[in-house]
Amino acid sequence: MSIRPTPEQVLLLAPDRAAAAAATTASDPGAWSAAGCDDDAVWGQYIATSAEPYEVAVDLGGPAFRCTCPSRKVPCKHCLGLLLMLAQQHVAPAKRLPFAQQWMQRRDRHPTARPADVVPDVQGAGDDEVAVDDDAAGVRTGVRSGEADRQREQRQLDRAERMRAGLHELDRWLADRIRTGLAAPALAEADTWDRLAARLVDAQCGGLANRVKRVAARVGQHARWHEDVLEEMAVLHALAQGALRTSTLSIDLADGVHAATGLTVHKDDVLAGVPSTARWYVLGESRVREDKITVQRTWLAAQGPGSDGGTVTTWAMLLAFGAFGNEVTTEHHVGTEFQADVHWYPGAAPLRALVGRMHDEPRRAAAAPIADTVADAVGAAGWAMAREPWLERFPVVVQVAPLPVGNGRWTLADHTGAIPIVPGFWRLAEVVALSGGRPVVVMGELSADGILPLTVWVDGGLVLL
Amino acid sequence: MLAASATDEWAALVGAAVLGTDRRPAPDPLPGWDTWAHAGDPAVALLDRAAAVVVARRAGACPEPPPVVAVPPAPDDARPPCPAPCAVRLGRLLGGEHDLLLPEWFALLEVAGVQLPWASLPALLLRGRRNPAFDQVVRRLAGGRASWLAEVVPELGVKVAGPGTIPASSPPFAPPPRPPDSGAVVTSILNVFYDRLATWAAAPEMRLAAASIDPVWLPSLVAELSRIGFDPVVERTRSDVLRFAEFRHEMLREFAAVAAIPSGPSVPSSASSSPGDPA
């Protein structure tokens, strides 16, 4: 399925402000010859000051970009200008120009070899990845024949080699930072981190690249940021070391390491695994905007009696992405429950999953979920962290009252303990107003900074935050 | 022993990492932590050791002890909670959709005798800072929970006590007065459309008229407005007034449904039977 963008969406793709400004100039139809489009692509020749016009083409499915101009920006102003013209209905449907036809055919044959894509094609299957599923991005999958299989194998080998080099480089970089010290001024420069992230993208370690960017955001965040950054660097070091010797790890752990570094598990392979059939309750949904992509996490839980008489909560997380500035569509609504097969992505502490067969229609759940105590919820998160220490968030459902701890900081607490609410949570007053100072059932994401509340159950109803 | 020393081991590693191992080598590992200190390169050894502490700290994380200061619970409120559709409707009104109908929503809530949707209370109180008449209505309907919230969440920046008397200059907060003959008002609204005088400039006046009429006339207004054929002169106003009338009609239906449900926790059957949709 192709996506016809709006001008705003096109400008969101610009790598920087200068490119966005230049794109508007480049969208003058007078500067173009033989511009045309069909359902999947748009192309044209940009008449530049040089002798030869630039050949420009955009695959609308990816989106992916091609331009013969010398700019190293992806997408360059010509690709953006072309998309702007398309958005403003200045491009008419036409037969593909030969260069566009050839390029699109090559992309059809090599759907994974897309070095120029705006989104790295490595898909972090970890619980924290920003990447686009093949389907979500609308990329056509290549035909699998004998020849294609061989090519695929070769590509995988090439990729493994590139990843290896990237992992070595990451680990050297980390050691260098420790040698010169975290107080060194270079660490406070965004460029230092951006360059590393960019090289990791080149090495197809997209998962690590995104993680590096998140660590960079922690520099200078508060007085004790050195501790946060050392913690994340130690985790990166462990991941790099683990990824360089996955053959010595248990299969589950190796899968977890692969997912965190950015190796893809194909959807079909996940769905081919043994499912867990249960009654799944949709407990929460979070949306985060990272780079140009909206990441949506939907948390499902299956609750049943455990061996010790308590309740065992099994979690599954569905990831969805909104590329191109589009909204993510919500497939499973919070507060509903359904009988379904859930397939987890492999890993040592599996959370990310796909819903396979649905055995009935989703129905509004009759009651709030069964809540853990704070101590049990934090304990469950600890077990998961012990299996995959690079997990960045873990779901909890607890019965708690919001309590202030001074300086405008709040916690969610019961008699077993308290979890701080993440700093900057802007709907705190709503949670307090809902609770009336009494315990309410809260589902949220637990991270190193505290809990991010997502859903509150009170008085037989629920409120999404 | 391992857990007790994790903090000290971590502090030593942070100190060395901040200055850099070139300048300050990390001190020898504390007992129990030496397993991870074998790497020859001091920087790599520090990362190895730090990773081990991080895993131990993350896996062994304990909740903080519960705070000793308790928040006094909000005053009890015997009214049944606000039904979800009405709460969603308020969210849309507060979002700027047809906020001309906000006074009527509050009037309906009061008649229905249900609680305010508490999740919207902070937004309502913040809005009231600029509008004393509105604030007075919100605080009256919120019962004790408004001043309770203002007190326990001082960072909200809302006064604990509402306005005692409303300054004469503040706009009144009440639904528009009902005309003596709503049928005549509907007819005149429609005539403005038939005469092609319903320009965009006339839209506010028409919305006000649609907000004031007796609700029994809303269905016929909606039906007649839907029937008017496309005309570029009045189309924008037509669809706007139509949406407005439909919005008001749905809002009234939602509150009518509240009255139909046997309310209050005192009725034992209401908990087990699912609230059907009588409308």
Key words describing this protein structure:
heterodimer, A: about 475 residues, alpha+beta, OB fold (Dihydrolipoamide Acetyltransferase, E2P), six-stranded antiparallel sheet, 16 strands, globular, B: about 280 residues, mainly alpha, 3 domains, 12 helices, about 0% strand, disordered C terminus
Brief description of this entry?
The complex is a heterodimer of chains A (465) and B (279). Chain A has helices at 7-12, 17-26, 77-87, 98-109, 134-137, 146-180, 190-202, 206-216, 225-244, 251-261, 267-271, 374-387, 428-435, and strands spanning 32-37, 41-46, 54-59, 64-67, 276-290, 293-305, 311-322, 336-344, 353-358, 363-364, 394-406, 409-414, 417-420, 440-447, 450-458, 461-464.
Overview of this protein structure:
Chain A has 465 residues and is an alpha+beta fold. Chain A folds into 4 domains: 7-109, no CATH class; 146-261, no CATH class; 267-364, OB fold (Dihydrolipoamide Acetyltransferase, E2P); 374-464, OB fold (Dihydrolipoamide Acetyltransferase, E2P), CATH 2.40.50. Chain A contains 13 helices and 16 strands. Chain A has helices at residues 7-12, 17-26, 77-87, 98-109, 134-137, 146-180, 190-202, 206-216, 225-244, 251-261, 267-271, 374-387, 428-435; strands at residues 32-37, 41-46, 54-59, 64-67, 276-290, 293-305, 311-322, 336-344, 353-358, 363-364, 394-406, 409-414, 417-420, 440-447, 450-458, 461-464. In chain A, helix 6 packs antiparallel against helix 7 (190-202), helix 8 (206-216) packs antiparallel against helix 9 (225-244) and helix 9 (225-244) packs across helix 10. The two termini of chain A are 32 Å apart. Chain B has 3 domains: 2-59, no CATH class; 84-156, no CATH class; 182-260, no CATH class. Chain B is built from 12 helices and no strands. Classes of the chains: A alpha+beta (465), B mainly alpha (279). At the A-B interface, helix 6, helix 9, helix 12, strand 11 and strand 12 of A face helix 1, helix 2 and helix 7 of B.
